[in-house]
Amino acid sequence: MKIQESAENYLEAILMIKEEKGEVRSIDIVNKLNFSKPSVSVAMKHLEENGYIERNASGNIFLLPPGREIAETIYERHNTLTKILIHLGVNPQTAREDACKIEHDISDESFEALKKHCKGVV
Question: What is the CATH number of the domain that holds 92?
Answer without folding.
Answer: 1.10.60.10
